[in-house]
Amino acid sequence: MTVIRSGSLVAAVLSLGLLAGCSGGAGKKPESFENFTAEEIYKRGEYELENSRRPKDAVQYFTEVERLYPYSEWAKRALIMQAYSYHRARDYEEARGAAQRFIDTYPGDEDAAYAKYLLALSYYDQIDEIGRDQGLTFQALQSLREVIEQYPDTEYARSAILKFDLAFDHLAAKEMEIGRYYLKRGHYTAAINRFRVVVEEFQTTSHTPEALMRLTEAYLALGLNDEAQTAGAILGHNFQSSPFYQDAFAQLRGRGLQAEARGDSWLTRVYRQVIQGKWL
To answer: Which tens digits make up the pLDDT trace of 233-270?
Structure first.
């Protein structure tokens, strides 16, 4: 991002003395900024952001730049810094609002990529514990994908790819948690539905080996041996070194069964596609 690096700390400190004269005391909002240039107010905001324990203290300065010097280069910089300051303060809703305003007002600017990234990050950083509602995770995925697709050659796209994978894994973890809950209580069909989602929709995540093992367990409990054996076959082919494969293999062997593709279930189709390369 270009604007965060703009302006030296020395200049900010020099302007601090000017701005402090109208502040009426440390920590209080200055009564008037009209007598100061956009650069002086902006750099006081930078100083507050770097030195205050409350990132929101900087917002008032960036807001005043935008109010007093609209449509100026400093106003543009101040707007993206508002989004950054709010994000630092973990006020994610305000951060999204400021970032979106920047995108709407300056869609072709070089910092639009950073604004889009901040918008996505404001959702990503709110992803809560696995047990909570995953709506924010979906919004984070959508916003991160926009960064990746719209600004593929930027540093933000590279970071967004990593965070996208983590958020994707988070959704798979949610499905696994619910599936284990059903499995533990003997609701095998409901559990299978959750583990199937992981295998079909989140197969690139770290949760796929366990999902296949749990499918083996659930199908064996229902007496659906063909499906259990096929789940074990996929697990053994792709994740033979996984402890989940050893567990699934032991369960099958305990029933006198082999890990092999059998029948014509959805798992057999996955086996044909993933292992045999047959997509029809």
So the answer is: 999 999 989 999 999 999 999 999 999 999 999 999 99
Question: For the whole model, what pTM was predicted?
Answer: 0.73
Residue-wise pLDDT tens digits, 44-99: 999 999 998 898 989 999 999 999 999 899 999 999 999 999 999 999 999 999 99
Question: Which pair of structure tokens corresponds to residue 89?
Answer: 């303060």
How many Å apart are CA 137 and CA 123, to the nearest integer? 7
- Where do runs of H (alpha helix) occur along the chain? 9-20, 38-51, 59-68, 73-88, 92-105, 112-124, 135-150, 155-184, 188-201, 208-222, 225-238, 243-254, 266-274
Distance CA 70, CA 74 (A): 8
Among the four given CATH numbers 1.10.150.320, 2.40.50.140, 1.25.40.10, 1.20.120.80, the one describing domain 9-170 = 1.25.40.10
Q: Which residues contact 3 (CB under 8 A, 6 or more apart)?
A: 77, 80, 81, 111
Q: Where are the domains of the chain?
A: 9-170, 186-274
Judge contact between 205 and 242, C-beta under 8 A: no
Given its phi and psi angles, is residue 223 left (phi above 0), alpha (psi -120 to 50 degrees) or beta? left
Phi, psi (degrees; rounded to nearest 5) at 166: -65, -40
**In whole angstroms, how far apart are CA 170 and each of 130, 135, 202?**
7, 12, 10
